[in-house]
Write a structure and sequence with these properties.
181 residues
Length: 181
């Protein structure tokens, strides 16, 4: 991956460099190297400087996810694609919200909102069943972390009920529940 980034730097294409760095950032995050992943994602976000691209929303969402994983909740909330003015319309238009539901669940749990976390996990699971897509490794890790937090905060019956409720929430309802004040 590092070789690909170096090649794209030499080539001079900003978009290709961004994509290579984002692939490297995801690889680092999956390996548990979240701080390195955050540094690369910040670099890409700063280079974007308001420019809308196909990967802007995803990068901000994954940056928020890595910050949540690290426990940097305040910063995770400030870069979240649901609240970032550039990323929010892209996230909705590209139907990428579903890719970030598990990370929203973990963020809600870390903010002391277990009902919201369970609802987000319920919605994520419903989407997984509907699409047939497996969760990525980073999503599985976030799901495991959220489920562990939820097991401490909710009874099994409460967890099941909240997850069922989350399956039918709209995007707007889910975002308000998990990210709202």
């Amino acid at each position: 991956m590092e070789e690909l980034v170096a090649l794209m730097q030499a080539h001079g294409s900003r978009d290709q460099l961004d994509v290579a760095q984002l692939q490297l950032a995801e690889s680092l995050f999956v390996q548990g190297k979240a701080r390195e992943s955050v540094a690369l994602r910040r670099e890409v976000a700063e280079r974007a400087d308001g420019r809308r691209s196909a990967y802007t929303a995803g990068n901000l969402g994954n940056l928020s996810a890595a910050l949540t994983y690290l426990g940097d909740i305040d910063e995770a909330l400030t870069v979240d694609p649901a609240t970032a003015p550039v990323a929010a319309p892209l996230l909705q238009r590209q139907n990428e919200l579903g890719c970030h539901l598990i990370h929203f669940a973990l963020l809600a749990c870390r903010r002391g909102r277990p009902d919201a976390g369970a609802a987000a996990l319920g919605r994520a699971e419903a989407l997984r069943r509907a699409t047939g897509f497996d969760h990525e490794l980073s999503e599985r890790r976030a799901s495991d972390m959220a489920l562990a937090a939820l097991a401490e905060a909710l009874t099994p019956a409460q967890l099941e009920a909240r997850m069922r409720e989350g399956e039918v929430l709209s995007d707007a309802q889910l975002l308000k529940l998990t990210l709202g004040d």
